[in-house]
Amino acid sequence: MNAPFQDPAAGQRKLPLTVLIAAPRGFCAGVDRAIEIVERALERYGAPVYVRHEIVHNRFVVDGLRAKGAIFVEELDEVPADAPVVFSAHGVPKSVPAEAERREMIYLDATCPLVSKVHRQAERQIEKGQHILFIGHDGHPEVIGTMGQVPEGHITLVETVEDVARLPFTQDDELSFLTQTTLSVDDTAEIVAALMARYPQIVAPKAEDICYATSNRQAAVKAMAGSCDLLLVIGAPNSSNSLRLVEVAERMGTDARLIQRASEIDPAWLDGLGTVGVTAGASAPEVLVREVIDRLAEWRAIDEQTVVTTEEKMVFKLPRQLTE
């Protein structure tokens, strides 16, 4: 007589799974503000409202705003002159609002105030006659926007410690540095150390350029990665701060995977695991975090535990056009 069929995965599914949930995670104040700007613009002006570049790097958010009447474009010349346009949270070169004004367009700047702070620092450093060494990732919208704040030839991009060794400047040159706001805290510290070692005269920004949300989310991952068999990072593949969270975990020896939605999780990833961590980049909404946790609960009996490393209370004001 044949033995009854037994599902080899059944026992695995019954095993409890501890799910550590990072706090803080997900939306930061700059992202909250940017999304609200688009939503309020739609209420005030009606659809369509154009948005230059993705307002934030998250497909779920972009699709949600598109459903409400937002139209996303890459360049300003794709926007009709009589239509309102919003500039993304990553910031834009000075030439973009200048062109909008030339065309007498209605435009709203959703640039994160912490990115705008870096823009103002760049202007002041140029006024002092300093050449800026800008630490960031080539091609990222924030980098394009920041480098577009100063005249061409007055700012040089530095991506790695190796780039520092190749710089053509001397210790007689007046130099300063700034950084992209969404970088790895540890990687950036290494590059800054290399810059200061080679150019002792270099002028540092008055305050840390890496934003509080990026630093806090990386610190939360560091606090829990050692207790996780796997870390799931919810975020887009073009989201700098989300990619850095994966890197932070991997640097600590923890397997980490970047996912955009719960549907991307392979249940085989959980085989033999006792603890999974969950966090989200600054552009990922909380609904996607809950979606991932609910998905895990379909396969395993889960024990949710929140790992709190700090509390965020930052709020940014909306543009005056939307509050008057």
TrEMBL record:
Binding site for [4Fe-4S] cluster: 28, 112, 211
Broad EC category: oxidoreductase
EC number of the protein: 1.17.7.4
Residue sites binding dimethylallyl diphosphate per the record: 57, 90, 140, 239-241, 283
Gene Ontology MF: a single term: 4 iron, 4 sulfur cluster binding
Record's keyword annotation contains Nucleotide-binding: no
Active-site residues, record numbering mapped to chain: 142 (proton donor)
Catalysed reaction equations from the record: isopentenyl diphosphate + 2 oxidized [2Fe-2S]-[ferredoxin] + H2O = (2E)-4-hydroxy-3-methylbut-2-enyl diphosphate + 2 reduced [2Fe-2S]-[ferredoxin] + 2 H(+); dimethylallyl diphosphate + 2 oxidized [2Fe-2S]-[ferredoxin] + H2O = (2E)-4-hydroxy-3-methylbut-2-enyl diphosphate + 2 reduced [2Fe-2S]-[ferredoxin] + 2 H(+)
InterPro entries per UniProt: LytB/IspH
Cofactor(s) this protein cannot do without: [4Fe-4S] cluster
Keyword Aminoacyl-tRNA synthetase: no
PANTHER family assigned: 4-HYDROXY-3-METHYLBUT-2-ENYL DIPHOSPHATE REDUCTASE
Entry function: Catalyzes the conversion of 1-hydroxy-2-methyl-2-(E)-butenyl 4-diphosphate (HMBPP) into a mixture of isopentenyl diphosphate (IPP) and dimethylallyl diphosphate (DMAPP). Acts in the terminal step of the DOXP/MEP pathway for isoprenoid precursor biosynthesis.
Protein name, entry field: 4-hydroxy-3-methylbut-2-enyl diphosphate reductase
Source species: Aurantiacibacter luteus
Record gene name: ispH
